[in-house]
Every structure is written in C-alpha cells, then in structure tokens.
Amino acid sequence: MSPSSDLPAAFMLDRWRVDAQLDTLHDGERSVKLEPRTMRLLCVLAAANGALVRTEALMDAVWPQVVVTPGSLYEAVAQLRKVLGAQAIATVPRKGYRLALAVVTEEPSPVASAAGAATSLGPHSLAVLPLRARLLPHSHGFIRESLLDDLIAELSRHPQLTVVSLGTMLNYEGHHRPGAREAGRELGTAYVVDGLLEVQGDTLSVRVQLVAVDQGTQTWIDTVELPLAHWWDTAGIVVGRLARALNLELLGHAAGVRTPQGPAQSQALMLASRAWVDLFARPETRAVTAQASAWSQQALALAPELPMASVCQAFCRWRESQFGWGDAAPAVLRAQALQHAERAVTLDPREPDAHYVLGLVAYSLGQTARAEEGLRQCLRLSGSHAPAHGLLALIRTRRGHPEEAAALCARAFALGPREPLRVIWYLALAWANLALHDYRGAFEASQQAMAVNPDFGTAYLTGAAAAHQLAATEEARSWIAVLRERTVFKSLQAVEERLPPAREAAHRQQMDELLALLAAAGLP
C-alpha cells in the first residue's frame, strides 16, 4: 500500500501523543524529540494504520530524491522501537514494516487554535504542576507536596518571575491532572514546570522539564538523583538546583521573545532580561558584556526605575573595570558600578541579584565586610543563588578563612553545575588553595577555570603562581605569556592596581605571596 499524508499534525499512538510539526512524542510524563526523518517514517507508518508499507515506498517517502541504503531505514526503525517499544513496529520479512499500535486522530480544539496568543500573566510567568510519582513508597508520599511547596516558594523569590500560587496548583492533584500545555492555557502562563518522581531501588530520581505553552515544546530538562534515605539532607540542594536552573532557562527563553515596541515598561523588561541572561548565563567576554551594557542602557532609558536594568549596568561596569574593557579609568568604572548597585538595592531590597552585584562591587573596592554582608543577604533572599555561594568562598578566603571555601564552592557547583559563572568558583578554590599552600590544588583549580573560560585572565595569575611553585616550568612560562599578551595583568604593578585593594591582614599576606611567586615565574 502507498503511504498517505492525510494524517493531522497531531495524533495519538497508544499512550503517546505525536506532534509531527514539532517532531516530538509526549506520554504525559516525558517528551521525546525525534529527528525529522524518523518522525516522517513514523507518520508514514501511522497513515497506513497497521497495514504493510513496503521498504521501497518507505524509502521514497522518507528520503525523497535522496540516494540512501536500506541501512538508513533500519537505523530509523531501530530509533522508533527504542522509544515506542520493541513490538511497536513489526517487520514483514523481505517486504517491509507495519505499525502495531493503534492510531487515533485528534480534532483541533478551539483552545489549540488560540496558540500564540499573548498570555495573561506575561512572558515571565510560570506554573509548577504537582510532580507525578512512580513507585514512591507511601511512607515518602509527602515528598511530592514538599517539593511543590519548596519549588514554588524558591521561584517566587525572584522578582522578575510571576509564579502561580501553591493553593492554586494543589487543585491540579489527582486523576484529572491536565497536561502541561493545557494547564498553562487555563492559568494564562507562558511556561509550565512538569516532572516525575521515581524510585529506583534505594535512589530517588527527580526529573523536571520546562514547557513553553504557546509552542507546546519542551525547552529544558534536568534530572537529580539522590539516596531516598537521605531525602531530608539533600532536599535543599534538589530544590535549589532546579529553581536556579529554571530561573536561568525561563529568562533565557523569555528574553528571546520578540515584542512590539511598547509599552515602555514591557519593552524595558525584555531588554533588561536579555542583558541579565548575557551576564549570568553566558561566558564572561568583552563582546557579551558590551551587548549586555547596550541592552540595559536602553532599558534604563525606557524605565529608569527598573531594578534589573541597574543590576546589569553595575555588573557591566564592574567587568569593564576588572578586565580593561571600558573607555574610562578603572576607578571611575568601579564608582559607577557601585552607584548602579546601590540604586538597584534601593529600588528593590528583595532582589537577590542586586545584593549579589553589590557584594561583587564592594569586594572590588576592598570593602570585604560589606561584600560579605551583601552576599549573605542575597542568600537569605534566595538560597539557590549559586554565584553568591561561589563569590562568598572567595571573600571568606580574603578575610582569613580559606578552609571554608571548599564547602561553599561545593554548594555552588551542586546548585549550578553548568553555569558559565562557575569560572569564579574555580578561581575561589584556586585562591583558597594558594592561601593554604596547596599548590597542586591551586594548579588544578586554575586549569579548570581556564577550561570554562579561556579569556578569564585572573585564572592565569593563580595558575602561573602555582605552576612555578610546583616547578611546572612549561605551564608557568606559557601562562605568564598569556598574562602579558592577552590580559590587563601585564606586570606586577598592573596586578596590584587591578585586583581588589588588600585592606585586611590576611588579604595583604595572600597578595604579597602571589606577587612574589609571579615575580619568580617571570612577570615583570
């Protein structure tokens, strides 16, 4: 029989909902993205509705006007069987294949036809559905509600997000729980968080995905696994990591949405979100910083009272002063950064990022006590703020407590294992290990920082110092060359001028030891 193309864009296949337009399969608990040709193969088989489709017809339909071997078809069939089950596609020897699952077509609903309409709660809005549970012991049934409560609470701490309340979301418990897209349409949110709790032996697996309601697409997924017996000890890490990742992902997607030029407040928020994503979710480079600066300046021009725009301006001015990327003198740029950071805190004292950036700028000015208080306030407002944990490790080292850095950085890595800002956490470990005279640890942490961001000049300072002490002559020579050729740290004098002033005894001792090692390594 010849394959037909009469199937609608979406249809049901056993427990799977097939969205051919988006190349995705959904079973109510997870979404699977197929390669376009694999989806085309599935649609051709589904259109035959259980009848045989000959090999030649399949190859003509899936690879039109392309010369391929039967091996391409075998591979595509194997991919479908891996997702749908080994018995889902039957082989008819020497003839072809047929689909062994029932096909049910869907009528387009009035709600579906409204996809793409503006959501009532705005582009930064989301709802967290109660997570499904599989094989969860009755004694641990409380975990579902606990996770829902904690996730909503942690996400709600971020002023830029609009999060549907716990009371509303508890109504979605039970057998009539809708899918993520349906729930988002009912609630008027741009995104929905959905997920699954599953027990596998002694391990609890928490899988969470973010669904964009308008497109019905899964934009992000993460899985955290932990010992079931130690749930209470690790629940904070699970919630914090998921909340941090969701915040980054949500703003990243919302920032990419094109909006009309107006009203001013909405346009300003979109511009500031783009700047925020560049600064917190992209590698620290000159180009990224320049783009973020331009967007946040435009946002401030449209809405001078927008805290996020001031946060971004403060972060940009700090980077320009630290890495020599600005036109003004470093002291001028730091003063501007402090002004923007203080304004952000004044505009919204509940904004965690404002306190984080204030801590960063205060540290660059040598105000370590103020920097520490800013970071601790950031963490009081948002325990999932991974960068605050990492920067606090550096500041505690500067204040004479390098032994605390490892635990603080471990928390940062657990909360944000893939964040570009983790380069600072590796740097914090490198500084702490130098202070503890663990030169091997400093050497390795510096290399990890370089791997995350090869343009992060400060990592070559700690790396060259540790390499010299370990008699790793080749690395020391190479990293001194990088410092002189590609960074602002071209001399010992430049290191003194660019790094934060050492106003406490422990910090001064660390700086003196660093300068001595760098001089011995060959920095003029």
Descriptive tags:
five-stranded antiparallel sheet, alpha+beta, single chain, globular, 524 residues, disordered N terminus
Question: How does this structure look, described?
Answer:
55% of the residues lie in helices and 13% in strands. It is built from 21 helices and 14 strands. Strands 9, 10, 11, 12, 13 and 14 form a six-stranded mixed sheet that branches. It has a five-stranded antiparallel sheet with strand order 4-3-2-1-8, with helices on one face. Helix 9 runs antiparallel to helix 10 (307-323) and helix 13 packs antiparallel against helix 14 (386-398). The protein is globular and about 80 Å long. 45% of the residues are buried.
Short characterization:
Helices cover 55% and strands 13% of the residues. The protein is an alpha+beta fold. Mean pLDDT is 84; it is low at 1-5 and 107-119.
